Structures are given as C-alpha cells and as structure tokens.
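Exam revision sheet. Question 4 asks you to relate a sequence to its structure. Input first:
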Amino acid sequence: MINTLLVEDDLYIQRHFVERFSEEEDIRIVAAVRDAFEAEGLCGQGGIDLVLMDVQMPRLDGYTATKEIRTLDNPFAANIPIIAMTANAFEEDKKMALASGMN
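Answer key, structure tokens:
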C-alpha cells in the first residue's frame, strides 16, 4: 500500500478522481490538504510514500512548495516522490516540474 498525500486547492474534484484511480494501483490517500504550507509540515513528519502535488495553488504554488520540501532538514522529505498534477502538458511545464524537484 502506497501512503499518499494529496495537495490540491480543489479537493472535492481531485480527491474523487485520485481515489478512483488509486483503487486499481494500491494507493491510499492518507491526507489531503488544500495548502502547500500544510504539505511541507506533513512531508517532514514521515509516513508519506508519495505526494501528488497541484502546481497551481493560490498561496504557494506546487513548484515552490516542492523546492522547499526538498530543502527540509529531513532525508525522508528530500527523497519522497512528488508527482505534479496539472492540466498543463507542454514540454516547458515538464521541465519546470523537474527543475523544482518533482519526479
């Protein structure tokens, strides 16, 4: 079972989508937060195997949040897989995700 953190400002729609997808992939949403600041705190605590990160959030975007998670003084947070969730699928978007530290 993959313990997953969902970081998304529109949790209602995305959580439904992710939960349906996760039924087939052995993924369990253990926490869902609307704010990237909360995600940073949870990633530093451990117990999360994967982060699904929205890249466009109002207070702190997913790219910046990922950079900050990667710099936490915690080896677990530095290596946790972070997957971008976005409707933007251009090569530039992929490059920005990878440059921020997303997998």
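Marking note for examiners. The chain has a mean pLDDT of 83.
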